[in-house]
Amino acid sequence: MSNKPIDRVAQATPAGVARKVKGLSDRAIAWIFVGPTIFLLLAINIFPLIWTINLSFTNFRANRPNRDVEYVGLRNYERILNDSDIWLSMQATAHFLIWTIVLQVILGFALAWLINRKFKGNDLWTTVIVLPMMLSPAVVGNFWTFLYQPQIGLFNYVISFFTGADPSSFEMLGSVDLAPWSIVIVDTWMWTPFVMLICLAGLRSIPDYIYEAAEVDRASKWRQFWTITIPMVLPFLMLAVLFRGIENFKMFDLVVQLTGGGPGSITELASINLKREAFEKWRTGYSSAFAIILFVTVFGLASIYVKALNKVKER
């Protein structure tokens, strides 16, 4: 049977007439819409990356743009790897990263487990729990700076209620021992709801018939938890760890609002150290090399983690 009548109808449509007049194929029209987006991505992401890589091999200083720029090869990278201050900032970053992820995963999963159980006021409590992650980090930083005040801060009075100590004795932001934990507490308070939502999505994706079959087999609640719930929610947990790990590795604004990297440099994360090298000491070439090292570190670890995540999802 001939398709000529159908072809004539297609050519008679506005799109068909426009295509015939313009002489453009579907692929050409697609490139017209996608091309500007690709160009913007290249201009905003790829070009700055290439420029940063180029600067990392020089002694360029942004506050002296007219000075003769010399290519120093791998000297910046060598100095960074042997810089004790850089390693201290990486150690502070690792402490912050590990503890925030551990606490957020545990608390987030526990909250998701509770919210997933239907009870009166479920929707209200879900909204209340999610509120912290809707706030700006700058607002959260100022809010918790007030709570941490030794004389009038509510946080110190809560701690003293359980310990019996003088509230003014807790210098959360000014103590070398407590300052790292103060930023861990704030980030955990702010982003645990995010992990909770991801875990809640995982819990609600488990079909009810799996639990019903387990009850028919007389499996206990504890056994159902370890053999059904955890394995099926594990990809969601790993996804939450990936998101929070990448985000916390480049944490900046919240820590600046709380401690500014102090006291001393005990809470100076890698991102804060990078900012000081680039915009306070104006060591642009050196800071560019540091930025490339951080980028390669995050990209490499994330790539390895994504491969592990895909293997878990395939099981």
Task: Give an overview of the whole structure.
The protein starts with a helix and ends with a helix. 24% of the residues are buried. By secondary structure, it is an all-alpha fold. The protein has 14 helices and no strands. The protein has 2 domains: 4-55, no CATH class; 76-314, MetI-like fold (Orthogonal Bundle), CATH 1.10.3720.10. Helices cover 73% and strands 0% of the residues.
Multimer state: single chain
Gap from first CA to last CA: 49 Å
Largest sheet: none
Radius of gyration: 27 Å
Gross morphology:
globular
Helical element count?
Answer: 14
Order of helices and strands: HHHHHHHHHHHHHH
Mean pLDDT: 87
Name of the CATH superfamily of the largest domain:
MetI-like
A few lines on this structure:
With 315 residues, this protein is mostly helical. Helix content is 73%, strand content 0%.
